[in-house]
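Appendix B, record 7
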Amino acid sequence: MAVWAAWGAGLVLVLVLVSFYVSWRATRLDRLHTRVETAWAALDAALSRRAAAVQEFSSGPWVEPASAVLLADAAAAARRAGSADGAGAARELAESDLSRTLRAVLEEPGLAECPGGREPLREVEAAAKRVLLARRFHNDAVAHTRQARARRLVRVLRLAGGAPLPGFFEMDDEPPRVPGSFGAL
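Structure tokens (predicted):
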């Protein structure tokens, strides 16, 4: 009888430990999904701020008309893709196009000496660098979440529930290197 009682106590202890581990794993997965959502919100805000800063910069007299049209069109396309697509492939392409257009226009040597355009130029530079960092944080959170969801226990017990598998946001996010700027990352 004492053997069965010890066996029963051991079994209960094992079940309690397994329950705690599964509960901890599910809570961790939930926190990772929350982290992805928070990182996406920060990235989305950074992308929107960059598009707004580019549109404001392109409307100034310090940008030649052809470059102003290119910048304004690329920023408007990025904003449209952001409001329509959220985090899809069309937005990735539009944001990458805005990054390439920014580099093409802002890396011109004469732009750094433009009077009155220095402050809006700094805002665009800072916004572009924030996009770079926000995308890195987002993709890092996605990688950690995907790694946690790939574990056998998570898949077998379906601890992720109905949450969709988060996706990476892939875009060209290299900020422009403006001559005479306040430095690189």
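Remarks on this record: The radius of gyration is 24 Å. The chain is about 70% helix and 0% strand.
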